[in-house]
């Protein structure tokens, strides 16, 4: 493993309002659900070391999606294996029988990943009536594996056609749909293959849900993808530079399977940046709100962490809408939970501004090209540039990059996202920097770009140029 020189570990990278674990490793968000005013976030966690290992489900709750209380680990590995990604459902009608009508159970559907050389994956069930301590179902697995190598990450959703719950899970090059009436017995109803359109590869962490449009409802199928690459960065464009990307399809759901009726000639990406993977939505929430893992498998295990040894972070919660653009329907995103901070925004002057916090947001109206540059005393530079045709995030000079060849590769370091709005239209851009994580939602939320950055010192200056009106707010 590449080592970070000790002399450079001077800076505390723990974000103020992005979720991080108390200690050690995290990856995917799991089982996100909203119950009685609290958001529950479970997550892939290795509690004993700051690198990937036998997975557990960590657990935290929040009332505002910015500040989280850590709860005890929810699911530990057992004789069927370790605990890979999955989802929760608030079983309001007690269809499972694990609670009562007065105390509806919270159910977790997750992947048991066997730790022997078979690495077999099965889907299993656990339940809780205090929404904190879980009991695993004695009849696990509830969806056994008939021999597929990759068979994981069940995501439950309400099936309005069959009037029951369904789930979508990743099965190699495709996803599979299953339906149930009691969460214990599941019947397969259909499949959807990724890559007939869009990106081909191994599917992970799917999600499927409806969103309204002006012309009725459409369904979204999100799939995170492992893409075989001969070499990184051969084609320096956002569609084929990385080995892990999250794409989405737009279409319909007939009760059995998904159909991508709104086909696009380019893959639709959930994020154009390097650091947003395995994103899924909250259950039991009217709005569709997602959180992703704000890291990248190509370097997450080597990324600088702070002295507490936490490694990994989540994106902020993002609400999704479907918008008609000149290029067809597209997902547009807005941050959830920052409304109050944003209400205290103050105007920024064009030119150089002194930065007083490393956790802040910018609310920008771009009436033409421009740039936002963040600089520190070490000469490090994080640049966000708005041109007529692209939104560019350039972190190639932003700080530490010697911990991984992939991170340091210019194809990863510079994100060029093609613009969606017509030239000459003014564009709303929200930018959040929170210590080691940059999130940009440009062109009214149609262009999300998430990137990890590791400055060796705080950025002290923010330089604003071009046709931009910007307001600044602090996040604490
Ligand atoms: C995605 C993933 C999932 C799996 C989990 C293991 O990042 O590979 O497919 O369940 O991580 O930690």
Q: What this model shows, in words?
A:
It contains three helices and 32 strands. Helices cover 3% and strands 49% of the residues. A hairpin with a 4-residue loop joins strand 9 and strand 10. The protein has helices spanning 339-343, 405-408, 410-413, and strands spanning 24-35, 38-46, 56-62, 69-75, 82-90, 106-113, 121-128, 135-136, 151-159, 164-171, 174-180, 186-193, 202-213, 216-226, 244-253, 258-259, 268-269, 277-281, 289-293, 310-311, 318-325, 328-335, 346-347, 351-354, 359-375, 381-386, 390-397, 414-418, 427-434, 437-442, 447-452, 461-474. Strands 23, 24, 25, 26, 27, 28, 29, 30, 31 and 32 form a ten-stranded antiparallel sheet that branches. By secondary structure, it is an all-beta fold. The site of beta-D-fructofuranose has 13 residues, from strand 1, strand 5, strand 9, strand 13 and strand 18.
């Amino acid at each position: 493993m590449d080592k970070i020189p000790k002399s450079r570990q001077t800076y505390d990278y723990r974000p103020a309002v992005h979720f991080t674990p108390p200690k050690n490793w995290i990856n995917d968000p799991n089982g996100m659900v909203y119950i009685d005013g609290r958001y529950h976030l479970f997550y892939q966690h290795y509690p004993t070391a700051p690198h990937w290992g036998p997975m557990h489900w960590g657990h935290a709750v929040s009332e505002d999606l910015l500040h989280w209380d850590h709860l005890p680990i929810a699911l530990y590995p057992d004789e069927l294996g370790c605990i890979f990604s999955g989802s929760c459902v608030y079983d309001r009608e007690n269809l499972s029988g694990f609670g009562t009508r007065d105390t509806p159970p919270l159910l977790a559907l997750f992947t048991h990943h066997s730790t022997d050389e078979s690495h077999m994956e099965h889907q299993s069930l656990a339940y809780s009536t205090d929404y904190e301590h879980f009991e695993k179902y004695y009849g696990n697995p509830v969806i056994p594996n008939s021999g597929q190598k990759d068979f994981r990450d069940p995501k439950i959703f309400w099936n309005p056609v069959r009037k029951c719950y369904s789930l979508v899970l990743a099965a190699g090059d495709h996803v599979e749909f299953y339906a149930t009436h009691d969460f214990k017995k599941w019947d397969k109803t259909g499949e959807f293959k990724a890559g007939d359109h869009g990106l081909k590869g191994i599917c992970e962490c799917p999600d499927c849900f409806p969103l309204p449009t002006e012309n009725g409802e459409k369904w979204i199928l999100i799939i995170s993808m492992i893409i075989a690459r001969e070499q990184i960065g051969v084609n320096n464009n956002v569609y084929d530079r990385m080995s892990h990307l999250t794409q989405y399809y737009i279409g319909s759901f007939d009760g059995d399977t998904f159909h991508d009726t709104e086909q696009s000639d380019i893959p639709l990406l959930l994020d154009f940046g390097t650091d947003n993977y395995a994103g899924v939505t909250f259950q039991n929430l009217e709005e569709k709100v997602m959180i992703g893992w704000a890291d990248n498998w190509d370097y997450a295990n080597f990324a600088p962490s702070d002295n507490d040894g936490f490694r990994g972070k989540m994106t902020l919660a993002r609400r999704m809408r479907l918008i008609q653009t000149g290029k067809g329907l597209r997902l547009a995103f807005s941050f959830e939970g920052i409304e109050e901070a944003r209400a205290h925004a103050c105007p920024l002057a064009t030119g150089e501004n002194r930065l007083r916090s490393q956790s802040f947001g910018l609310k920008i109206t771009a009436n033409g090209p421009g740039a936002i540059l963040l600089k520190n005393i070490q000469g490090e530079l994080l640049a966000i540039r708005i041109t007529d045709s692209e939104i560019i995030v350039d972190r190639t000079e932003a700080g530490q990059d010697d911990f991984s060849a992939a991170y340091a590769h210019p194809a990863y370091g510079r994100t060029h996202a093609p613009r969606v709005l017509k030239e000459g239209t003014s564009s709303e851009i929200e930018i959040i920097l929170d210590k080691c994580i940059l999130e940009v939602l440009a062109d009214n939320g149609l262009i999300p770009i998430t990137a990890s950055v590791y400055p060796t010192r705080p950025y002290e200056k923010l330089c604003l140029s071009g046709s931009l009106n910007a307001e600044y707010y602090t996040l604490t």
